[in-house]
Specification:
The protein is of the alpha/beta class. The protein is 50% helix and 12% strand. Strands 2-1-3-4 form a 4-stranded parallel beta sheet, with helices on both faces. It has a 4-stranded parallel beta sheet with strand order 6-5-7-8, with helices on both faces. The protein starts with 6 loop residues before the first helix and ends with a helix.
Length: 403
């Protein structure tokens, strides 16, 4: 297929957290607000006057210093983020909005927080005099009490702190403006992603992964013109005469902000047609609906709790619903199998991956490839062997079924 006009530019934007568009927004006087988890609604961090940056650790090779402060048994993702912070990679941040959800990333963000204790000198990891780190408590259930608690946490710890510390407008009018911008990003990303449902998709999983990531790590108002142009470009993009892959897969699992991991899978013959993982588009690019007369913050709180498929929700009905959701995605995107990848030492996704490996094949008849990996793909040769074997097994299954 013809190369996408902005793909190389998008790839370059992903090389550093403090990328070109982040620097441009900062130069315009906007505040950069970091976050790591879906439960910190990015729409609240994109209010007029500030912009959200979902943190990544691009090109991190070995989190040796971070391991000293954390543990070698803490997931590589959290250690890599701390390593990059210690290197000065996040000094552009004006605030970090944290969630008490994943223990490992919570620990990383605790290191960013200034302690101001007489007994210990602050590390001052973020070299910014006005930087602050704020935490919210996220419920483990989806009940009316949970919705109210989550809304109140967002009102006090996010909107209140943004207003008091940075002077951000947190009125209902400002919230509606941020929701409108968020929904346009969702519309464009979903329009681009729907081309993966074609029998011969006109966008690869790698390309979509790059596009989805730049929508998470760049100021929305600056990346939107590029997304609009890319969506328009794809309307007339012609696919290859012969489909270049051997099967289609849904990729699910924990934090995955490395497009090269998707490229590795596709180089083995499996086209990634759907991304049901942290940093993916399945949850994060669903538009927010505000009913007439509804409090915008109430709508946001309910949206993020209702749309999350995070394995930290452990009631049996929630767990069964997640399996059904995965099976529905495999059907919707005409996939032949499922790859489930969890980062090593990720507690939530380690349980989820093991359960999915059994349930998805036993109850839904979906071929499953189960992978535990590091945040950094150091063992690409071993992964390549696993993926190639999985592709061959899917092909054999299709032959046996006469497809």
């Amino acid at each position: 297929m013809k190369d996408l006009k902005h793909l190389i530019y998008f790839e370059n934007l992903l090389q550093e957290a403090n990328n070109e568009l982040v620097q441009k927004a900062k130069a315009e006087g906007k505040y950069a607000i970091g976050y790591t988890c879906y439960f910190m609604p990015e729409v609240l961090l994109d209010l007029p006057g500030c912009f959200s940056v979902r943190l990544r650790a691009p090109r991190c090779t070995s989190p040796d210093i971070a391991t000293y402060y954390m543990s070698s048994r803490v997931c590589h993702y959290a250690r890599s983020l701390l390593e990059r912070a210690l290197e000065g990679g996040y000094n552009f941040l004006d605030a970090q909005m944290a969630t008490e959800t994943c223990t490992a990333t919570c620990r990383f963000q605790e290191h960013l927080q200034q302690k101001h204790l007489d007994s210990v000198e602050d590390m001052r990891i973020i070299d910014n005099d006005n930087f602050f780190c704020e935490f919210i408590d996220v419920p483990f259930k989806k009940t009316n009490i949970a919705y109210d608690h989550y809304r109140d946490q967002l009102r006090f710890h996010v909107l209140g702190k943004l207003h008091d510390n940075l002077g951000i407008d947190v009125s209902d009018e400002a919230l509606m403006q941020a929701i409108e911008q968020h929904n346009e990003v969702c519309r464009l990303i979903n329009e681009i992603g729907d081309y993966r449902k074609l029998s011969n998709p006109t966008i690869t999983g790698y390309e979509f992964h790059v596009i989805q990531l730049v929508s998470l790590v760049c100021p929305k108002y600056l990346i939107l013109p590029y997304l609009r142009e890319t969506a328009e470009e794809l309307k007339t993009r012609e696919p290859d005469d012969k489909w270049p892959f051997r099967c289609k897969v849904v990729l699910a699992g924990s934090e995955n902000d490395d497009p090269d991991f998707t490229k590795l899978i596709e180089s083995c013959g499996a086209e990634v047609v759907c991304d049901r993982y942290c940093y993916g588009a399945v949850e994060s690019r669903q538009p927010i609906v505000v009913q007439p007369g509804q409090d915008p913050l109430e709508a946001i709180a309910r949206h993020y709790l209702d749309t999350s498929n995070c394995p930290r929700f452990m009631p049996q009905d929630e767990m069964r619903a997640r399996k059904k959701k995965l099976a529905d995605l495999v059907k919707e995107y005409n996939a032949d199998g499922l790859i489930i990848a969890s980062n090593k030492f990720c507690e939530y996704w380690s349980y989820e991956r093991v359960i999915d490996t059994v349930i998805m094949n036993r109850d839904f008849g979906i071929p499953v490839c189960s992978i535990e990996k590091e945040y950094i793909n150091a063992a690409s040769g071993q992964l390549r062997t696993r993926f190639q074997a999985f592709v061959e097994s899917v092909e054999i299954k299709k032959i046996q079924e006469g497809k």
